[in-house]
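Entry for the shared binder. Reason: the reviewer on the internal report wants the predicted structure included alongside the sequence.
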Amino acid sequence: MPMSDSPLSRAILPEGWPTPRGYANGMVAQGRVLVTGGLVGWDEAGVFAKGFLPQLRQTLMNIKAVVEAGGASIEDIVRLTWYVTDIEAYRGSLKELGPIYREVMGRHFPAMAVVQVVALVEPDALVEIEATAVLAG
């Protein structure tokens, strides 16, 4: 899968390494940093979407909203850290997850990590994601 680069950032791929699918091994960027808190899959009223994939979609939409409110775009995101309460739900939904990710994030694949956690602060949350974006000057 191609990794998109913005004018301010580019993916890093060490020589001889296989091209990652759906993420970058590293990113280099220059500019102002915008960092989100851990965002979850609830709407503006605090109502959670039902199920892992609907919560994932809403979480990505929430990231997009915060990043855009900060004057950035999806392409300015250089890192996503995902926290999931059920890694098997994540692994078992990869086929369906890809189209949802691309619907919101396009074909922009920053550096990412996915970590299973015992619980999240919001009891109904199944996924929480932090984003880091780099904006011009």
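Summary line for the report: The mean pLDDT is 91.
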